[in-house]
Amino acid sequence: MRRLGSVQQKIPCVFLTDVMEEQSRKRDCQQFQVVATENVNPVALQANIHSALATEKLDGTCCYVTVYKGQPYLWARLDRRPNKQTEKRFKKYQHSHKSCKGFTWNIEEDFKPVPETWIPAHGVKHHSGRPVPDEHGHIPGWVPVERDNKQYCWHSSVVDYNVGLALVLRPRRDNEDMLEITSVPLAELQEQTLELIGTNVNGNPYGLGSKKQPVHCLVTHGSVPIRNPPPVDFQQLCSWFHENPDGRVEGIVWHCSDGTLIKVHRHHLGLKWPEANTCLGNKPTAIRVDAYGSTELFTSFVALNGHCFSRLQDIHFEL
């Protein structure tokens, strides 16, 4: 499979969007809703989306693997955001101008502090050597996941830096209808982005684990293809999400041949998420973890090595 684009920036919607003055279906604190029109985004057409690879959009938190302290490390997504006073000023400007163009930022004073280890994401624009915010007022970036940082304890559970391994969920090479959780060298994941999914991430839409026995894993972006994807057409996409069993996904991310990423989310189309029975959560899953690690999760998966579950969401450690 060809190397796919990594998720470093906000991904544009496949359709042009409108902003509606109503409560967001995706974010409780957001008093507006971004909805898709039926017009295909010119960015998608320019990237030849009709020949792009359609993959499942995963509902977790974004991660990145790159070097830290001389070895491949997992990094967590951390966007630099405006402080409260600046955010109020920014939103007022947006509302009155119907755009953020022309808004003036003071990079040193307008943003909340971030750890010294923070780095900006690839593609972030710079001015006078400093990263500048995108149209949403954020500066996308990353922080390394260190073992002693409780804020990222679920990130830490899926990596073992002592042996250089990560717990990864992926389709089996010999049967794409089946998944496997396996240990993968972090060096093989270098410069890729992945999604952390599991019990304590984003409300656990895939039904993984339990409070007593949490289950988490990484999924490389673009690794779960959509079988027989629908055409890039508003009505046909709505029907596919609503009626097709393969449409029980959060959305679609198209990986275009020039590296451009394009997405559509169910909420763009006015459809609910999560679904009761997700496509991913219902796939049969094999455990192939035979390398011992120092984390509790690695140890639990080693005990299940060679076992197959009828559904991903059926994984449990008491056999």
From TrEMBL:
Top-level taxon: Eukaryota
UniProt GO molecular function: ATP binding; RNA ligase (ATP) activity
Annotated catalysed reactions: ATP + (ribonucleotide)n-3'-hydroxyl + 5'-phospho-(ribonucleotide)m = (ribonucleotide)n+m + AMP + diphosphate
Enzyme class at the top of the EC tree: ligase
Keyword Nucleotide-binding appears in the UniProt entry: yes
Keyword ATP-binding belongs to the record: yes
GO biological process, one term: RNA repair
Co-factor(s): Mg(2+); Mn(2+)
Keywords of the record: ATP-binding, Ligase, Nucleotide-binding, RNA repair
Enzyme Commission number, as recorded: 6.5.1.3
Role description: Functions as an RNA ligase, in vitro. The ligation reaction entails three nucleotidyl transfer steps. In the first step, the RNA ligase reacts with ATP in the absence of nucleic acid to form a covalent ligase-AMP intermediate and release pyrophosphate. In step 2, the ligase-AMP binds to the nucleic acid and transfers the adenylate to the 5'-PO4 terminus to form an adenylylated intermediate. In step 3, the RNA ligase directs the attack of the 3'-OH on the 5'-phosphoanhydride linkage, resulting in a repaired 3'-5' phosphodiester and release of AMP.
Protein name per Swiss-Prot or TrEMBL: RNA ligase 1
Biological source species: Pundamilia nyererei
